[in-house]
Design a protein that fits this description.
This protein is of the alpha+beta class and 130 residues long. The chain folds into two domains: 32 residues, no CATH class; 97 residues, no CATH class. The protein is 19% helix and 31% strand. The chain contains two helices and seven strands, in the order αββββββαβ. The strands form two sheets. Strands 1, 4, 5 and 7 form a four-stranded mixed beta sheet that branches. A three-stranded antiparallel beta sheet has the order 2-3-6.
Amino acid sequence: MRTTRRALIIVVAAASAALAGCGLLPDRLMGRSMSVAPAPGQVEPLHAAAVANDQAVFWVSSNGCTVKDDLIPVVQQRVGRAIITLRRVKPDDCTSPQVGGVELVWTFDELGLKPGQAVSVENPYQLPPS
């Protein structure tokens, strides 16, 4: 019985290390920041996000110049679902902040996803400035 327990502990420890090394567990469950590595740009905080009708819709902050090409959705396939992390690759250096931010939409086809596929969003959320 003692040998079986020791073997089980070793297997669980090895599996945990393997999963952490492969990035199969979300960073927030591993006690790390939510950045996806390696990937371009910076993780973009969101005001809101919605996934429906085979589209992913994001509301992000804008100083007046943010367009869709300023952000890149990084899609990771996990067991049973896709995880999207929106990353900003171009700064918005304008000086006319948009109240509530701007809405950006990607279709599942643009994201390389199957129609109806389960999706979650990994970005942090922030309230728009008041």
